Automatic annotation (TrEMBL):
Protein name as it appears in the record: Uncharacterized protein
Family per record: Belongs to the N-acetylmuramoyl-L-alanine amidase 2 family.
Stretches assigned to the Peptidoglycan recognition protein family domain: 115-259
Alphabetically ordered keywords of this record: Immunity, Signal
Biological source species: Littorina saxatilis
The keyword Methyltransferase belongs to this UniProt entry's keyword annotation: no
Record-annotated N-acetylmuramoyl-L-alanine amidase domain positions: 127-265
Lineage of source species: Eukaryota, Metazoa, Spiralia, Lophotrochozoa, Mollusca
Pfam hit, one: Amidase_2
Gene3D superfamilies in the cross-refs: Peptidoglycan recognition protein-like, SH3 Domains
Record CDD domains: PGRP
InterPro entries in the record: Amidase/PGRP_sf, Amidase_domain, PGRP, PGRP_domain_met/bac
């Protein structure tokens, strides 16, 4: 009888312990781009690439394989493993601490109220040659661009390909460290993370340190982007405002307002004149 009481008490304690664990689920967050694999070890297939700041649920167990300790994670219901050297662990939704080395990422891209933002890892970005550093304060300018070359895109696969092509063109064709915009937007209705909310871009001469650039994929000289793209651009700006990533007193401009360029295309440029915070500048384009 006494033994049964001890066993029952042990079961109760185990249940309580398990309940507390579920309530305080642990997450593992990437500090650099790191592969989540189908098993522990570099010989296993890559299921997903975690971008810095991305977190997956951590099951709590780990194994040592090769040169690394591998954490057991959950990715969309799939069991995956990632090297702890490039992960931090935290209570999901809480603050992080380093679990395996490397800096902790504090910036997030997919903020509350944002449209869907395709992370760099998910569109197949190359690593930048170097980082330009973060802007000192929330940007006071928002610049609208268009890519100008090639056809528009209407699904994530083709839009991702166009963002990759643009990145290659800037990095290989011009020797830049990375694609210069903060975000690109496709007519699929997705935003595509490039430099994100805080990193200094390379998009608008003399304004990179205090402005962000949103580039819509396509040529909008004779027509405006579709409703999906326009709504995403507007929602992205509002999301930046709501989350302190854009100054409340920001000024909206087209690229041609401050540079000798046709960007963002005449039809699109004329449209943004009616948007909130637009302030006309010197239209340097004579075409």
């Amino acid at each position: 009888m006494k033994g049964q009481v001890y066993v029952s008490l042990g079961v109760v304690l185990l249940i309580l312990s398990t309940s507390r664990h579920v309530e305080a689920a642990q997450c593992a967050c990437a500090t650099v781009a790191v592969h989540a694999r189908s098993g522990a070890g570099t010989n296993h297939n890559t299921v997903h690439t975690m971008y810095p700041g991305e977190c997956l649920t951590y099951h709590g167990d780990s194994v040592h394989a090769g040169d690394y300790t591998w954490y057991h994670l959950d990715y969309n219901g799939k069991s995956v493993w990632a090297a702890s050297k490039w992960l931090t662990t935290k209570t999901c939704g809480g603050s992080t601490h380093t679990g395996g080395g490397g800096a902790t990422s504090t910036d997030h891209v997919q903020l509350p109220g944002c449209p869907r933002i395709v992370r760099r890892a998910d569109w197949g970005a190359r690593a930048p040659k170097h980082h330009t550093g973060d802007m000192a304060a929330a940007p006071i300018y928002v610049f609208i661009h268009h890519s100008g070359a090639g056809a528009e895109c209407f699904d994530q696969h083709s839009c991702s390909q166009k963002v990759r092509v643009a990145q290659d063109w800037y990095m290989d064709g011009h020797g830049w460290s990375d694609l210069g915009y903060n975000f690109m937007v496709g007519e699929d209705g997705n935003a595509y993370e490039v430099r994100g909310w805080t990193e200094i871009g390379a998009h608008t001469l003399n304004y990179n340190h205090n402005g962000i650039a949103i580039c819509v994929i396509g040529d909008f000289t004779n027509k405006v982007p579709n409703t999906a793209a326009l709504n995403t651009v507007k929602q992205l700006i509002q999301c930046g405002l709501s989350n302190g990533k854009i100054s409340p007193s920001y000024t909206l401009k087209g690229h041609r307002d401050v540079g000798t360029t046709a960007c963002p295309g005449t039809a699109f440029y004329n449209l943004i004149h009616s948007w909130p915070h637009y302030a006309s500048g010197t239209n340097h384009y004579a075409g």
